[in-house]
Design goal:
globular, mainly alpha, Rossmann fold, two-stranded parallel sheet, two-stranded parallel ribbon, 56% helix
């Protein structure tokens, strides 16, 4: 959708941004709390250096979709604690960059919600161009998400990223309105 690019636009304008994906990445690192917990629940999910092996997690989820719920039960409380620490340490306008905001109930922590959106074909092309996901992985992830039209209907702001110039104007308008 262009979520990370849009978050960078806020960051470039001096707005603190908490990134859920970066939080998970840090939690999965060798010294993070997630490797031991995930290894205990799913033996073989860590690398020799103690990092969570995301490719193994994807395979485990592909084998049994219920495993995603088990993984989320372990990881989501860790992510929530990291988000809470960020919010405790910041004042004023902040951005929570959360891919599954509505699905995880994260919208309860937000005063206003901006949804980053683009047409479905552009989204698919962008995701698959990264080379980190198969078309099947992409479809599985989409199937677990609220449809974009519903997200848009629940948003206070919609940032259309089909044009970066339009997205930049939308970001500037949101900042202007909220500060």
């Amino acid at each position: 959708m262009g979520k990370s690019t849009t978050a960078k636009m806020f960051r470039d304008r001096g707005i603190p941004v908490w990134d859920a994906d970066a939080s998970v990445h840090n939690l999965y690192a060798p010294n993070g709390p997630a490797p031991a917990l995930l290894e205990a629940a799913f033996p073989g999910t860590t690398t020799p250096d103690g990092r969570v092996d995301r490719s193994v997690l994807r395979r485990i989820i592909a084998e049994d979709a219920e495993n995603l719920d088990r993984i989320n039960t372990i990881v989501h409380p860790l992510v929530a604690a990291d988000r809470a620490a960020f919010l405790d340490d910041t004042d004023g306008l902040v951005v929570l960059d959360v891919p599954l905001l509505f699905e995880t109930g994260g919208d309860a922590y937000c005063d206003k919600i901006a949804v980053v959106s683009v047409d479905a074909e552009t989204q698919r092309k962008r995701v698959l161009a990264r080379g980190t996901m198969t078309p099947q992985d992409f479809e599985m992830i989409l199937s677990r998400q609220i449809p974009d039209a519903e997200k848009r209907s629940r948003a206070d702001y919609i940032i259309d990223t089909s044009s970066m110039v339009v997205a930049q104007y939308a970001v500037d308008d949101i900042i202007s309105e909220l500060t």
